[in-house]
Amino acid sequence: MNTRAKVWASAAVLPLLTGCPNQTGAPDALIHYHQLGICKTIPSLNYTAPAFSAIVVLGIGQVDNSEVGSSWSLNPEAFLTNPPTACQYNVAALQSPHLISIPANGAPVLNTGIGIVVQTTNQDGSDAVNVDYHPVYGNDQPPSATCQASLNVPPLGPFPVPNHPGTVSVADAPPQRISISSCADFFQVGPIIFFTQATPSH
Predict the structure, then answer these.
(1) Domain locations in the chain?
(2) Is the separation of the CB atoms in 112 and 195 below 8 Å?
């Protein structure tokens, strides 16, 4: 069993709901996730979080769209975390933009990860491991130029977030308090996947 399977099977289910639910009473899509831990570098993207920051890694298991009667496209760049920090940066923006199709009344399994750079109090970013982070979907604005400079990331303009239903994030397991240097070490087989190579299955 590879590391990804170990991570997802390691803890009992602990439902926790957060996100941006639909205010009109229409059905929401459920985004199932698990907080894997924090790290400082992503070798495959040649990125290292600077001082006073860390990369929060959240595993996205399944997008349950079974109660939603329309398809939509998920943009990996549109995730941020709650609780928020003054500056955040989604590392999906370091890659070529792409969308993931979510079928109507479907529940594709992604089993992949997202990485969000967050500001921290400690210079080495270690305090982030004690925070429970939750993915929030729907952000369509880049961080300010000041934030981009402080997090040592390239300039980023607005990015498209196609129409989508309300979303509710569901924690499938307690957060893991793992702090490592390389994000790739979360998975023993190959580099960590930040959506780029994800192939949804039904």
Answers:
(1) 3-180
(2) yes
pTM for this structure? 0.81
pLDDT tens digits, one per residue of 4-50: 222 222 223 334 444 455 555 678 999 999 898 899 998 888 899 99
Q: Which residue carries 């439902």 as its tokens?
A: 15
Distance CA 51, CA 93 (A): 20
Q: How far is CA 22 from the centre of its chain?
A: 20
Which tokens hold the place of 121?
Answer: 């109090």
Helix ranges, the chain (H): 3-9, 145-150
CA dist., res. 51 & res. 22, Å (int):
37
At 85, give phi and psi (nearest 5°).
-120, 165
Q: What are the residues whose beta carbons fall under 8 Å from the beta carbon of 135, sequence distance 6 or more? A: 19, 31, 33, 58, 60, 79, 80, 81, 82, 114, 116, 169
pLDDT in tens, 135-158: 999 888 888 889 989 999 888 777
